[in-house]
Amino acid sequence: ALMEALTPEAPTEPAAQAPKTSAPETSLRPQARSGDDLYRGLIKRGLPEHIAKGFVMNFRDESGLDSNINEINPLVEGSRGGFGLYQVTGPRRVAYEAFAKEQGKDLGDVDAQLDFLMVELGGTEAPASRSIMNTTTAGEAASVIVNKFLRPSTKHGYRQSRSARYLSQNL
Fold it and tell me: Cα(127)–Cα(143) distance, rounded to whole angstroms?
């Protein structure tokens, strides 16, 4: 398999340590997805292979490929934190929640998250998209994705260390 698969069992209970959010409650459980499923979903949406791989590398670091995860300890005081595969937060989270609602989708829906990612790349995140599209390897794409699209806090050197790790991978 191109990417490691997740454990096929979906959790039976929501994560006990995840804070409550204003997101609607649902009886649906996120379907366990593998990196391969996400990779194929991104390819289907038109991303080049190396960029799809770069996004999956970041999804793994951001959420462990859990589309229904909410950031446990948000860095921004008073924030609900990041949500989903790529931990959308702040105004991007609000936009995603409106998008999912408009589509009639559960917030944890993988396809809704991938579709929103594509909306962002073609709209508000077009400058980041141009930089991502100029990459030639998965490691380079992953590095540009973390630095220009995801933009996690630079506190504690986390973004820098991830970027360096991605660039060191010859994929």
Answer: 15
